[in-house]
Amino acid sequence: MILVVVIAILVYFGVLNLGNAIPDRCVFQAGFLCKSHRLYLDSENINVSVSVVSKFSRRITISEALCSSESPDPATGYPLRGLVDIDDIDILPEGLKTLQLRCYNKDGSVNGKSGEGYEGLIYLKYSEDLGYASNIGSITGEHIKVANIAGKIT
After folding, report:
1. How far apart are CA 9 and CA 29, in angstroms?
2. Contact 104, 67 (CB under 8 A)
3. What is the DSSP string of 31-78?
4. Contact 79/70 with Cβ under 8 angstroms?
5. What is the pTM of this model?
6. Tell me, what's the pLDDT at 142?
7. What whole-number distance in Å separates Cα of residue 73 and Cα of residue 117?
8. I need a labelling partner for 115 at 20 to 30 A (CA). Which of 18, 20, 21, 80 fits?
9. Residue 146's beta-bridge partner residues?
10. Cα 119 from Cα 149, distance rounded (Å)
11. pLDDT per residue over 5-59, tens digit each?
């Protein structure tokens, strides 16, 4: 009983702030592997540095990306603001690239504070080089993959 009272007092005074206890995670849908990620502030803006490994058997090109905790539009599968053009990033099979992205909050703002928790999604629009099919030439198609990220902002 005494232990419960002590823990309740610690939580009440913020010593044990369970509200900011967000587990660190970065998990992509099949096709990509999140090697590492770090949420950080640039001025007061939330950013993420994420190292992505391609698990595809062919070269892929990432053309657009977005980090956001805004609700996705059911029609597109990503927030209404749309994905942000980035310089095309080619990744070879089993290759690793690090992306730097600005992260949006649920209300569309980009402000955060050091020590706060952040949970959101990373959207990657990519095309896979399918090689050559008879005389048609290189075949590509655009796809979207999503990663679930969370952690403490540094």
Report:
1. 41
2. yes
3. TEEEEEEEEEEETTEEEEEEEEEE-SSS-EEEEEEEEE-SPPPTTTSS
4. yes
5. 0.81
6. 85
7. 24
8. 80
9. 123
10. 6
11. 767 676 666 555 555 567 899 999 999 999 999 999 998 999 999 999 999 999 9
Tell me phi and psi for residue 61, to 5 degrees. -125, 120
Residue 25 C-alpha from the chain's centroid: 10
Phi, psi dihedrals of residue 2, rounded to the nearest 5°: -65, -40
Strand segments (E) across 78-129: 84-91, 96-104, 117-128
DSSP state of 111: B
- pLDDT tier, 134 (very low <50, low <70, confident <90, very high otherwise): very low
Element (H, E) at 10: helix 2-12
Tokens 């609700």 correspond to what residue? 71
Percent of the chain with pLDDT over 70: 82
Q: Which single residue is written with the structure tokens 């992505």?
A: 52
Hey, what are 106's tokens? Answer: 């649920």
Output the six-digit token pair for 53. 């490994």
pLDDT (tens digit per residue) in 40-50: 999 899 999 99
Domains and CATH numbers, the chain: 22-152 (2.60.40)
C-alpha dist (Å) from residue 141 to 41, 98, 127, 131, 138: 35, 23, 5, 12, 10
